[in-house]
Amino acid sequence: MSASTTLGDKMLQAQQIHQLAMKEVGDHLTQSGFEFLAVNSQLKKDPQFVCIKDQKLHFIVVRGCLYPDNPKTYDAQRLEQVRDHGIKYKATTYYAGVGFAHAEDYELPLTENDPYAVNFDGLQIME
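-> structure tokens emitted (127 positions)
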């Protein structure tokens, strides 16, 4: 156990991991010029972001995970359903996987009070 991890610290829950991922992706979208039409922060209620950019509609599915899980791994069947829904609205669908790990040592558990490292390579288009 490191000096920054104490016995009183709580492990991150799935909803907290999702909220961190939503913030990372939301910041990325803002910096990339996307305008938000709808934001759904419920875990596994897809898509999380419905945006407009260059007069085109975009659906973004966000998933957060903890190391050693790979943030680029996604549920292909679920993403296909969202993509098919997007096609009905002439929207482009993206997957945004965000990984988190303890900043000092990836092997340490990540609690609410720990510094963290982020693994996010941007949006993956679902074709």
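The chain is about 25% helix and 30% strand.
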